[in-house]
Amino acid sequence: MSVTIDDIRAAAARIEGQVVRTPMNLSRTLSDIAGAEIWLKFENLQFTAAYKERGALNKLLQLTDDEKKRGVIAASAGNHAQAVAYHGARLGIPVTIVMPEPTPTIKVVQTEQHGAHVVLHGRVYDDAYAHARSLEEEGGLVFVHPFDDPEVIAGQGTIALEMLEAAPDLDCLVVPIGGGGLMSGIATAAKAIRPDIEMIGVEALMFPAMKNVIEGNALELGGDTLAEGIAVKDPGYLTREIIREKVKRIDLVPEAAIEHAVALLVGIEKTVVEGAGAAGLAAILEEPDKYRGRKVGTVLCGGNIDSHLLANVLVRELVRCGRIARLRIAAQDRPGALAAITRIFHECGVNIIETNHHRVFTALPAKDSLIEVECEARDSEAIDQLIERLRAAEFKVERTTIMRD
C-alpha cells in the first residue's frame, strides 16, 4: 500500500465543505520569541477540535453502500473516536467505538452524543483495539484505523495542501507524531509539492516510539504525558515506511516545554490547544537555534484538553515565569511575627493567596514556626525583591520550584 499526492488531492476534493478549512496564520509574537517566521495551522478549530476528522471522513466516504449499511468500528479514547462518530452520524453510518474502561466519562459521553455506540473493554488501548478487531469479524464491520490506513493518511495529508497554499515558501514543517498518520500524509503532500521542504517530526520525550523504530533505538516508553494524543507505543507499519523516507529527523520534547507551549498559545494566540497539538511549537521553542531565521509551519492538531488540567498548566506556567511563588518562611513563634511578614509583602506589592502555619510538623526548634505562603506578583522581580526584604529582616526563606524534566 502507498499514498500519493493524487490520493491526497482526491481526498481534498472529496471532503471539501464537510470539514473546516482552518486558518493558517503567521504569529508575529511567536516569531519574535523564536527568532523565526512561525506559521500556525489551527486544526483545533475543527468541529470536534482535531484534525482527525479529515482522515476519518475520507475513509467513510469511500465505503460501499453495503459497508455503510453494516457499519464501522474503531478503537480510541480520544479525537479519532469523536471524528468517526461525528461523521458517521452525519452520513447515516452506524458507528461502534471501543474504549478502555478507565476512559474519562466526559469522553465517553461526548462520543455517545455524536451518535456512536460505545463499548468499554480492557484496561489499556491495546485491550480495546484487540476487542474491536474481534467485534469487526463477528459483526462484519469495517475497521477504521486511527493512523495505519492509506485512506486515513490521504485525508490527513489535505492539511499540507492548505498550509502550502497559504504559505508556499515555507522552509520546513514541524509535525507531531504519534502513530504517524498525520506526518505521513503531510510529508507525502509537502514533498510532492516542494521536494526541498524539510520535514521535522516531534514526539513526547516519554513516548519516542517512532524515533525508536526509525533510528533503531531502545529508548524507554511510558509515563503520564500531557501529550496523550501522541502517546503511542506501537506506531503504524505503513506510516513508519513513509516517515523513514520523507522525514529528516524526529525531535523529542520534555513535558515542561509542552506545558509552556500550551500556555503561550492561550496567552498569545488566545486559542486552546491540547498537549499533543502544541508539541510542534514546543519543539521549535525548545531548540530555537535549529529554526532561527527560517520560515516554519506547524500544526496545532487538537484542542481537546480537560479544563481543570488546562487550569493547572496555566498556573504552573505562572510559577515557572516567577509570577506565582510558594515561600517557606521560618519565624520565631511570638506575637507580631506574622504581622511583620505580611507588612513586607504589602510594601513589596505582593499579594498573599494562601498561608499555612506549622508549629508541630516541622524540624525547627520548638520556639519557632514555619509559615508557608503562596503569593502572586506582577513579575518575577517583585518576588525576588520580597525574598531579599524578608531575609534582610532576618527571616529564613526557601522558595519551592517546579523542576524541569
From TrEMBL:
Q: Which cofactor does it need?
A: pyridoxal 5'-phosphate
Which reaction(s) does the protein catalyse, per the Swiss-Prot or TrEMBL entry?
A: L-serine = pyruvate + NH4(+)
Write the record's keywords in alphabetical order, separated by commas.
Lyase, Pyridoxal phosphate
Q: Name one GO molecular function term.
A: L-serine ammonia-lyase activity
EC id? 4.3.1.19
Looking at the Swiss-Prot or TrEMBL record, what is one Pfam family this protein matches? PALP
One GO BP on record is: L-threonine catabolic process
On whether Lyase is a keyword of this UniProt record, the answer is: yes
Tell me where in this chain the ACT domain is found. Answer: 326-402
User: What domain of life is recorded for the organism?
Assistant: Bacteria
Q: Which PANTHER family match?
A: L-THREONINE DEHYDRATASE CATABOLIC TDCB, THREONINE DEHYDRATASE, MITOCHONDRIAL-RELATED
- Provide the family line: Belongs to the serine/threonine dehydratase family.
Question: What is the protein's given name?
Answer: Threonine dehydratase
Identify the species of origin.
Sphingomicrobium lutaoense
